[in-house]
Amino acid sequence: MGDQFPTVRIAAAQASPVFLDRERSTEKAVSLIAEAARQGAQLVAFSEAWLPGYPWWIYMGSPIYSAPFTQQLYANAVRLPSPTLTKLCDAARDNHIYVVMGLTELAGGSLYLGQITISPAGVMIGHRRKLKPTHAERTIWGEGDGSDLFTMETKIGVLGSLNCWEHLQPLTRYAMNYFNEQIHVSAWPSFCLYTGTLHSFSAEANLAVSRSYALETQTFVIHVGGLCDQATFDLLADDEEKARLLRVGGGASEIIDPMGQTIAGPMGDNEEGILIADCDMAKIAGAKMANDPAGHYARGDVTQLLLNRRPRRPVIYADAATPELLPDEPPHSGAIADVDAVKGYEK
């Protein structure tokens, strides 16, 4: 199909972090980024809250049990900008690859569930937060706002990302469809919690969510999950009851095309590595011809989406001459730019 419909190689990094250790996890991420690039990937995606690990303890015990782990998460969360971001940007630049990283962000005194996108030039071009942390996650992470819904124009296509059960929000899906997304990162934690107890927490149920997202939005979807390794299990499961709630493994990463077909994976339940798929972008046009819910298949005269993309600020200055943000406070979210040569979060 020529340059109009190129083939793009994308990757999912299914791996466990070095749990609650930001520095060692960052070094592991750098190695995984390099490995994806060695396999020819132009983009590599990491799972939800990968850096420095998903807080499984919030579903496993009392606040007293949870407090020491939450304090470690706070101490190992990622500020933006920071030396951690610099290392990730350097890895993207050195390997000439786009990177989408899930992380716990520390901003001010609060934690947020973030996703950042870094260009092959080594610059962060996107930064978002989960709009509404799910269930017990709200004991850890604050909320995002409307500015956290966006896509990014890049050399490999229009990129977007969401976390976990954000994919169950119909209006959020519709907004992303309207932004004409082409490659989507669907980031999840490991499917290692409440196994056999809650089907809604299972790999089967949530793979179905990512597959339906691909069909509904006509995108290539990188469904990327993490792993719970033995060291994490041993740390958290300190009695028989907790050991029944969590298990080792939980991986099920796969890559899905705009027709809802799996084109790579799923990876094994406890398999660590890089999953690769070559994406024929002409498939998007074929899917759009039949079904474009926010375009020719829409009925705006019957149903419409009201979308407020303004940042929600806790403080707004009454003096119009005073900047809304403090001089050293960056905007917390949004597509920093829509091209590779960006300004904003310079290293």
Automatic annotation (TrEMBL):
One of its GO terms (molecular function) is nitrile hydratase activity. Coiled coil: none annotated. The active site is at 48 (proton acceptor). Pfam families: CN_hydrolase. Keywords: Hydrolase. InterPro entries: C-N_Hydrolase, C-N_Hydrolase_sf, Nitrilase/CN_hydratase_CS, Nitrilases_CHs. This is Carbon-nitrogen hydrolase family protein. Residues 8-281 form the CN hydrolase domain. One of its GO terms (biological process) is detoxification of nitrogen compound. Belongs to the carbon-nitrogen hydrolase superfamily. Nitrilase family.
